[in-house]
């Protein structure tokens, strides 16, 4: 085995170990064991110092512990290591949103979605920020693109129906809400919004007669 083959095998082993440590950290994070998760991510960062994943994990843990400064630092390191890291941009967007920097959060969520159109965290964050800012066209486009790939996601369908309603696209909102209620008859939020949309369409029809 030559030096190049040895180097490749060592790189593969290092990458696998880093990924395993990150996966273990993710498991600990999901059950709220943040100290254990942090330890795994720190070990992963030592094993793979050029990998963005450990720093994304550290950022998530810091956010869960309301340590916004360290969260921002970790996400920025992840972005520096991987300029296409969708999760890091979404993390920075969440921080900007917490700081009521709507325009910055909006742009960062968009940047995240440019890297990963299926990033649900970025999609829902973009929805929240767009409602605050009253800017709907861009997020509607992304939600529609997501639903073309995941047509049965009722939570995203409801977000889109809400934006259609706010953008006065009531017929599209009604169609979307009817689909939600058909799929989930117990969805009271969708049923209530559908009732509101129906009233709006009736009022519109009365005004034109």
Overall description:
By secondary structure, the chain is mostly helical. It has a domain of 83 residues: Tetratricopeptide repeat domain (Serine Threonine Protein Phosphatase 5, Tetratricopeptide repeat), CATH 1.25.40.10. The chain contains eleven helices and no strands. Helix 5 runs parallel beside helix 7. The N terminus is likely disordered.
Which CATH first-tier class of the domain at 1-83 would you pick?
Answer: Mainly Alpha
Beta-strand percentage?
A: under 5%
- Whole-number mean pLDDT: 91
Any low-confidence stretches, pLDDT <50, length ≥5? Answer: 1-6
C-alpha-based Rg, rounded: 22 Å
CATH arch. level architecture of the domain at 1-83: Alpha Horseshoe
**What is the CATH homologous superfamily assignment of the domain at 1-83?**
Tetratricopeptide repeat domain
**Helix/strand order:** HHHHHHHHHHH
What level of helicity do the residues show?
over 70%
Largest sheet: none
Treating each run of at least 4 consecutive H or I residues as one helix, how many helices? Answer: 11
- Report, as a whole number of angstroms, the end-to-end distance: 84 Å
**Basic shape:** elongated
| SS class | mainly alpha
CATH fold group of the domain at 1-83? Serine Threonine Protein Phosphatase 5, Tetratricopeptide repeat
What is the number of beta strands?
0
């Amino acid at each position: 085995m030559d030096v190049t083959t040895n180097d490749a095998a060592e790189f593969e082993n290092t990458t696998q170990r880093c990924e395993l440590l990150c996966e273990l950290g993710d498991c600990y994070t999901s059950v709220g064991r943040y100290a254990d998760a942090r330890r795994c991510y720190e070990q992963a960062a030592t094993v793979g110092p050029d990998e963005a994943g450990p720093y994304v994990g550290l950022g998530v843990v810091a956010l869960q512990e309301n340590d916004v400064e360290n969260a921002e630092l970790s996400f920025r390191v992840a972005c520096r290591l991987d300029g296409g890291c969708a999760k890091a941009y979404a993390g920075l967007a969440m921080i900007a949103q917490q700081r009521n920097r709507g325009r910055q959060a909006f742009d960062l969520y968009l940047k995240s979605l440019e890297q990963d159109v299926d990033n649900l965290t970025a999609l829902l964050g973009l929805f929240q920020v767009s409602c605050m800012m009253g800017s709907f066209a861009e997020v509607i486009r992304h939600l529609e693109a997501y639903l073309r790939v995941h047509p049965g996601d009722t939570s995203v369908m409801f977000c889109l129906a809400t934006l259609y309603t706010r953008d006065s696209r009531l017929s599209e909102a009604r169609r979307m809400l009817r689909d939600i209620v058909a799929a989930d008859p117990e969805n009271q939020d969708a049923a209530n919004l559908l009732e509101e949309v129906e009233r709006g369409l009736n009022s519109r029809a009365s005004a034109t007669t």
